[in-house]
Amino acid sequence: MKGKLLKQLRNEKGLTQTEVGNAVGVSDSTIRMIETDKRNASLDLANNLADLFDVSLDYLEGRSAYRNASEVVIDILGRVDMIRACTDGQNIDDKIINIITEYIKNKKSK
């Protein structure tokens, strides 16, 4: 887990390390050590933190620029709208839509 991301999320919510620790069942010193990259969060703790801040584990690990699945969907839908605009109102081939749909399904399952 990226400590800087955890600290950023905590600050965005206006929470103290103690408040975050209480919310996920650990001490404030545990949160402090994670934020300073002196300790790694267990999978259970990482899941609890992701739930608390409504982000994906991939985001907390720095593997995704998207905070959660809805950001991915919004981005994809925006790209579909852009493709539609470039086709001058012509219908997009169903194959392209299927490819996009499969991509989203595969990303969600990882």
From TrEMBL:
Record's keyword terms, sorted: DNA-binding
DNA-binding is among the record's keywords: yes
A Pfam cross-reference name: HTH_3
Source superkingdom: Bacteria
Ranges where the HTH cro/C1-type domain occurs: 6-60
Signal peptide region: none
GO molecular function, one term: DNA binding
Record flagged with keyword DNA-binding: yes
Record-linked PANTHER family: HTH-TYPE TRANSCRIPTIONAL REGULATOR XRE, TRACRIPTIONAL REGULATORY PROTEIN-RELATED-RELATED
Protein name (Swiss-Prot/TrEMBL): XRE family transcriptional regulator
